[in-house]
Amino acid sequence: MSQKDQFIKTIEDGYSFEGESIVLGGAMLNGECQTNSLVKVPLKTINRHGLIAGATGSGKTKTLQILAEQLSNNGVPVLLMDIKGDLSGIAAPSPGHKKIDERHEKIGIPFEIGTSPVEFLTLSDEPGARLRATVTEFGPVLFSKILELNSTQSGIVSVVFKYCDDNNIPLVDLKDFKKTLQYMTGEGKEEAEEEYGRMSTASTGAITRKIIEIEQQGADRFFGEVSFEIEDLIRQEDGKGMVSVVRLTDLQDRPKLFSTFMLQMLAEIYATLPEQGDAGKPELVIFIDEAHLVFNEASDALLDQIEAIVKLIRSKGVGLYFVTQNPTDIPDAVLGQLGLKIQHALRAFTAKDRKAIKLAAQNYPLTDFYETDELLTTLGIGEALVTALSEKGIPTPLAHTLLRAPQSRMDVLTDKEIKDIMKKSEIIKKYNIEVDRESAYEILGEKIELAKKEEHQEEIKKQQEKAAKSTSRSKKKEKSMLENVMDNTATRQIGRTVARELTRGLLGALGVKTSSRRRRSLW
Fold first, then answer.
1. Does any domain span residue 323?
2. Which residues of 203-241 are buried (b: 16+ CB within 10 A; e: fewer)?
3. What is the side-by-side order of every strand in the sheet holding 243-247?
């Protein structure tokens, strides 16, 4: 058997599945596409996660688009995190091209023009339905991990959540959490310490600074109501899965917000969807474009959380697909969980690049048909090395694949086209309203104001009592002084009277004697 025949047999055996599957393209040998040697992915194992990697301009985004629209065609809802803003074209039909027809002729499948139903979502000022979640929905553990708190600070966060639960105080947004922390270390300190123990001011100050840090990245706009419901991500329209595009073009320099959203979304999906194991097809597939933005900025706690979710969420029928430039951008613990790998070209400009390519080649099954590390540097645009998981969970043979073209537009929508889609949206009116119900900020704010008023009244009362006492003492002193003065005056008066009487008496006696002498002298 020739090498070509052996190769074709290997592809046919490795990529023949009993259940539904999606076609990625045609297998290539020695630079030529072997017509009708189709490279496919079974829908049953799509929830085993995946990786799309390759250098800038190698075709990663178009591969993501192909996967998303093929999943949608098979009734599988898709969530796309659009960092660069170039995925909106999935909502419009492809204009077609002669080269596209030639490519599909080589692959052995007809080219069909099509679109997918699309909803635009946003975390910021981009057009789309607003994504929000309350602080309560995060829970103390995930909220602490987002803030990158130590164990002592995380304990305080748990106490804040417990206090609000015990007192039926809603924690909706970040200002609610800060107000609760302020109350429990201020006016309500005695109450909090009696029930939950003492909280260090140094730790509470550190927590407040961490909250301010994520507020400056725009997280205050994400925390709030109306909370986004997962059921709105897993809809179908005319038998096709809904493609929800989260527009994140203005969040590239705010990785904290992106990580916050992503983790909360994954945690909420895991908590909401029921266990389903390996069903015929996934319940939802999530594509995280420019995934290195998440992992490069992630703390150890965040990485641990992502790793745990990647391992667990598969059983909920959810597939996670990371799109990045090099497989080494993904932590080994996560990379080892990825079943489908689509590797576009890598560039070797430095010794470090060549070393990275050798490492990347080791992530793929061994093959007798390719020198993987050399092929990685010579792949053309729209070509990739592919390996998936069979229906039995066994890795398929490595295939150099000529990828099919997207059925939808390979360009972005105009502003008018985006507005037209938003006008037809079923969820824009539901989520694009501002709700600011009475929550911790208002409830505890009133308590703080009341405590301040009571404290002010108490202070006034004390001042009045002090003034009254001072006045009373002053009057007593004046009376005492007056009495002293009067006593002194009376004493002096009596003294003068006595003295005068004595003087008068004495002078009278002297006068009597003098008169007697005078009278005797006259005689």
1. yes
2. bbebbeebbeebbebbbbbbbbbbbbeeebbbeeeeebb
3. 32-42, 21-29, 399-403, 383-387, 340-343, 50-53, 318-324, 284-288, 78-82, 243-247, 118-122, 129-130
Residue the block writes with tokens 């005689």: 523
Cβ 88 vs Cβ 418: under 8 Å: yes
Residues of the chain scoring pLDDT < 50: 482, 485, 489-491, 494, 497-500, 502-523
Q: Which two tokens stand for residue 273?
A: 């969807």
Report yes or no on 61 lying in a domain. Answer: yes
Prior bond of 310 cis (ω within 30°): no
- Cα torsion for 481, 483, 485, 490, to the nearest 10°? -170
Cα angle: 48, vertex 52, 54; to 5 degrees: 155
- In this structure, the number of other CB atoms found within 10 A of the CB of residue 486 comes to 10
pLDDT of res. 455: 63
Partners of 519 in the beta sheet?
none
Where are the alpha helices (H) located in 170-289, listed in sequence order?
174-184, 189-196, 201-215, 219-222, 255-272
- Nearest by Cα to 426 from 117, 77, 91, 119: 119
Q: Give yes or no for a contact between 104 and 427, defined as CB atoms under 8 angstroms apart.
A: no
The pLDDT score that the predictor gives to residue 20 is 92
Residue 325 lies in a domain: yes
Number of other residues whose CB lies within 10 A of the CB of residue 303: 15
Residue type (1 letter), 97: H
Range of the domain at 113: 3-128+241-252+269-287+311-423
Q: What is the pTM of this model?
A: 0.80
- pLDDT value for 509: 41
Which region holds residue 30: left if phi is over 0, alpha if psi is between -120 and 50, else beta?
left
In this structure, the chain runs to a length of 523
Alpha helices in 392-439 (DSSP H): 415-423, 428-431
Contacts of 428 (CB under 8 A, 6+ apart): 128, 129, 422
CB 327 within 8 A of CB 343: yes
pLDDT for 449 equals 67
For residue 429, what are the CA distances in angstroms to 128, 226, 248, 422, 432?
A: 10, 11, 21, 10, 6
Give the C-alpha separation, 23 to 137, whole Å: 39
Q: Could you give the CA distance from residue 492 to residue 506 in angstroms, rounded to a whole number?
A: 20
- Confirm if 372 and 398 have CB atoms less than 8 A apart: yes
Q: What's the rounded Cα separation, in Å, for the pair 161 and 46?
A: 37
Q: What is the CATH number of the domain that holds 69?
A: 3.40.50.300
Total domains present in the chain:
1
Place of tokens 């050798």: 358
What percent of the residues of the chain are helix, what percent strand, and what percent coil, each to the nearest 5?
55, 15, 30
> At which residue do the structure tokens 């939808």 appear?
408
Please enumerate in sequence order all residues whose Cβ is within 8 A of that of 376, keeping only pairs 6 or more positions apart, or say none: 343, 345, 346, 357, 360, 361, 385
Residue type, 407: Q
Q: Are 282 and 319 in contact (CB under 8 A)?
A: yes
Residue 218 is predicted with a pLDDT of 80
Residue 500 lies in a domain: no
